[in-house]
Amino acid sequence: MALQSSGQLIRMSQINTELGRSSTATISLDTAENGGYGTINTCASPYPLAANPASMSEWYGYNHSAACGNSSYAMSDGGTATSQGMLYSDSISYSGTVSTSRPSPVSEFTISFWLKRATGDSSVGYLFGLDGGTTNDSLIMYWDSTEDPNDPGVYANRIVLSFNDDGGGSMQSVVNLSDTNNSTPTGVSPTFWDNNNQGNVEPHGYSLITVVIYYPAWATNDYIKWYWNDVQLDVPWNAGAVGFQDSYTVGDSITTPDWTNSVLYIGGSVPTELSSGCQLDSYAVYPATRLLGSDVSTLYNGGSVATLTDYQNIGALLYYNFESASPSIGEDTGATYGMFLDEFSTPIRIADPAV
């Protein structure tokens, strides 16, 4: 059973018992926290840390027999303001492995991942990209926190999906997490979006971000749908002028992209002028599947990472859960395409996953 989470002070005899030892056995608090009497169960939340000074309070709520969830690791860029780590398709062809044309804004696809704003000093971060290589087609997703030049102290905390094709067409969908219509479901206020202004998150500080593209609904509010956790946000189609804090989707004369010789990116620093400040977990790309609201609820799983089977039951996907580091953390575990990504600039697999 777990130790109490508050109130009565924890005794050394209780720690012994929780670790499966005799309550009267000789014990050192530092040795216990370092796993000397049994490996600390990092699947428990919370769990005592090996860093000194050792403290009895670190054992509050610890459950030595807690079962591991569906995620034990996440990906961090592990870099600096000028050199963030990322995953990319360097040694394997995206077009040859997945498709020459998907994901396509003139068809349907979905991108879904758990996101944690892990630092408070970055204003822009990169989330996804397809660079057309020999073509000028490009599809990128990033977030930014930008101060209103006309209202200092007020920010637009946005996630942006942008597409430009070789024929000159373009599309952009912008969700401002802190605009009037979206601030309640996201919980992100108009101040700077950082680790102290996370919004509505699960216990480890993550939110599930999902964007769904469905071209048959072009020029309507249903063309692109954004979800924060399992709640659909208000991102209307708007062909006219938009304000600093508006959420909107606009587009003009887009054509089917050609991803021949293209490169797929997840996280990190492409374009290189973008800084970082986030962690990613359970990253799913459905290249040709439109998720429904019920599917998003399945992946949200009440605030916990869903099983791989849950992901696979929805459709064919690229899936990166960063659970293995051999040969790299870019292992595609979706069992559809086998598109293993290479590491650039040392992204880090960290034991701070979404629950």
- Assigned CATH architecture of the largest domain: Sandwich
Largest sheet data: 8 strands, antiparallel
Task: Classify the fold: give the CATH topology of the largest domain.
Answer: Jelly Rolls
Helix/strand structural class: mainly beta
| Tally of separate helices | 6
Shape by Cα distribution: globular
Low-pLDDT windows of residues: none
| Domain module count | 2
Number of strands: 16
**Roughly how many Å is the radius of gyration?**
22 Å
Summarize the helices and strands and which ones pair or pack:
Blueprint (H helix, E strand, L loop, with lengths): L11 H7 L10 H5 L40 E3 L9 E3 L5 H4 L10 E10 L6 E8 L6 E10 L7 E10 L5 E7 L6 H4 L20 E8 L9 E5 L2 E2 L15 E5 L10 E4 L11 E9 L6 H8 L7 H7 L3 E3 L21 E3 L3 E3 L5
Task: Walk me through the structure.
With about 350 residues, the protein is mainly beta. The chain has 2 domains: about 1-70, no CATH class; about 75-350, Jelly Rolls. Helix content is about 10%, strand content about 25%. Strands 1, 3, 8, 9, 10, 13, 14 and 16 form an 8-stranded antiparallel sheet that branches. Strands 11-7-6-5-4-12-2-15 form an 8-stranded antiparallel sheet, with no helix packed on it. It is globular and about 75 Å long. The mean pLDDT is about 90.
